[in-house]
Backbone:
């Protein structure tokens, strides 16, 4: 990725970046009010994320402060005497989402970040996703290399615990790599079919 | 320095019904002398094809596979055969073939047929290497049909080591249900290779079977991802179907 001014990546700082990024993607798909966006976010990311509606409002305000979203007070569809804030993406939003797709994520929680990107990725982001998945796979392989191999002679309780711990690390990384490579495979197959 | 083994833009395709499947797509990698490379991949990811190309058992459709700087595809069939019986050893748990009535030591000794040794010399070398893989003298005289899975793996390793190869290629090195036996075999393999300065190229579905390697790679859809981003491996976007338009990254 070419160097980007810190101003443009400021909104990507902090642990809530994956959710902010996913919200931005949803806004670009269709504007909405906080409750609607919270529901769409939960539907898109799945139950394991436990999306809190209050958090969604807070994140939308952050997006607005950074100039990526604007809100307008609009009458509710079912009750025109009452209003709610509807959020719209600004002109900068699409470029910001593209930048997020291209940005390498911090080690933790990498997979959540990738999952968030996947949930709102546009077709034109396919190659950015492939690059991010490949980078993640490489990261997992490098972590696996850091694990000291067993000497194969451990017969004590301590040696057994060490071997089991080592096994846990390998098992976890293997799941991550399997997921990343399977996802790459599916994206590649989709790209082929659409050619 | 010339790498011991190098792949440069290697592609391999196989027919699948009316179409062709690209099993490997422009794969590049290098294995240095005395180094170790582990390739992790799911079934049908192209691991075995890559290893067979490295051993000269199969030839690439395009690109080059070089051993010690020489293009394997340009060698005569007989020369490739000598390479595979000498400087390169190929070991796959699925290739175990026990001959009824043949002793373990003879099983290892007969693999040295092309070395110009007498049977007595071959048996002596076989005993030495069997001892290294912790197969005792009593077991060495037993029939190959009586071996446990763990013993079979060790005898296969002894057979590979006996020819004093420079490169040992292992397809699914350990298929042992007993986890402590598996760990023990892994450690033995690494130690034996390190003592003899043998380069290891291993592929497995399980990452744990590749522990301790210097370079770890993952193979998906014919595309390699490696811990060595440049120089050793050039990862390229994969495409399953041959002839599909390729997009650059």
Residues:
């Amino acid at each position: 990725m070419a160097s980007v001014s810190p101003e443009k990546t400021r909104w990507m700082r902090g642990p809530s970046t994956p959710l902010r990024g996913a919200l931005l993607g949803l806004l670009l798909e269709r504007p909405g009010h906080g409750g609607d966006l919270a529901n769409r976010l939960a539907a898109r990311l799945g139950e394991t994320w436990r999306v809190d509606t209050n958090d969604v409002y807070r994140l939308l305000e952050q997006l607005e402060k950074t100039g990526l979203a604007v809100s307008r007070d609009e009458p509710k569809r079912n009750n025109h005497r009452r209003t709610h804030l509807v959020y719209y993406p600004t002109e900068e939003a699409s470029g910001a989402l593209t930048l997020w797709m291209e940005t390498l994520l911090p080690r933790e929680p990498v997979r959540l970040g990738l999952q968030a990107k996947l949930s709102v990725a546009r077709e034109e982001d396919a190659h950015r996703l492939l690059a991010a998945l490949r980078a993640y796979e490489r990261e997992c392989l490098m972590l696996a290399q850091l694990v000291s191999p067993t000497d194969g002679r451990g017969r004590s309780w301590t040696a057994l615990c060490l071997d089991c711990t080592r096994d846990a690390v390998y098992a976890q990384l293997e799941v991550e790599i399997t997921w990343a490579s399977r996802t790459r495979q599916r994206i590649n197959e989709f790209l082929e079919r659409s050619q | 320095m010339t790498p011991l083994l190098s792949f440069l833009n290697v592609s391999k395709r196989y027919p699948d019904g009316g179409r062709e499947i690209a099993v490997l797509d422009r794969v590049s990698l290098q294995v240095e002398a005395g180094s170790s490379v582990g390739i992790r991949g799911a079934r049908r990811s192209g691991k075995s094809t890559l290893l067979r190309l490295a051993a000269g058992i199969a030839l690439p459709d395009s690109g080059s596979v070089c051993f010690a700087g020489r293009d394997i595809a340009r060698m005569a069939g007989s020369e490739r055969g000598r390479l595979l019986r000498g400087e390169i050893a190929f070991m796959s748990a699925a290739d175990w073939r026990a001959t009824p009535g043949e002793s373990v030591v003879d099983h290892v000794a007969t693999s040295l047929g092309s070395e110009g040794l007498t049977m007595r010399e071959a048996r002596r070398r076989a005993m030495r290497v069997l001892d290294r893989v912790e197969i005792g003298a009593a077991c060495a005289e037993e029939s190959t049909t009586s071996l446990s899975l763990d013993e079979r793996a060790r005898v296969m390793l002894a057979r590979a080591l006996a020819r004093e190869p420079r490169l040992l290629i292992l397809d699914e090195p350990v298929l042992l249900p007993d986890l402590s036996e598996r760990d023990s075999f892994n450690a033995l393999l690494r130690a034996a290779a390190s003592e003899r300065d043998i380069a290891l190229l291993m592929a497995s579905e399980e990452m744990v079977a590749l522990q301790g390697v210097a370079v770890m790679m993952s193979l998906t859809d014919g595309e390699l991802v490696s811990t060595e981003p440049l120089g050793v491996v050039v990862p390229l976007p994969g495409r399953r179907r041959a002839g599909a338009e390729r997009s650059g990254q």
Remarks:
- Chain A is about 60% helix and 10% strand.
- Chain A has a mean pLDDT of 85.
- The first helix of chain A runs from residue 6 to 9.
- The longest strand of chain A covers residues 69-75.
